[in-house]
Amino acid sequence: MSALLSGAIAFALGCYAVASVLVVIRLIRGPRAQDRVFALDLLYFHAMLVMLVLGIRHRSDTYFDAALLIALFSFVSSSAMAKFILRGEVIE
Fold this sequence. Notes:
By secondary structure, the protein is mainly alpha-helical. The protein has one domain (3-87): Helix Hairpins. The protein has helices spanning 3-29, 33-58, 62-87. It is elongated. The termini are far apart.
């Protein structure tokens, strides 16, 4: 792996770490439930991006499969939380 790619991966992981810390602050301090749901969805998105970057770094397909699972769980959980906020129940 070249030094440029290694540096870019380290920079990307650092940026994702800083962004995730800021999102966790929004998750804790969010004044509305919608802010918290959006923050949790954004945390799922950051986790997926970290897995993709780690897959590039380690040259392994397993990380890409894990990123796909994270994206699937993100969609399902966001849909369930949105339905809960709108109707007050998830299962009718």
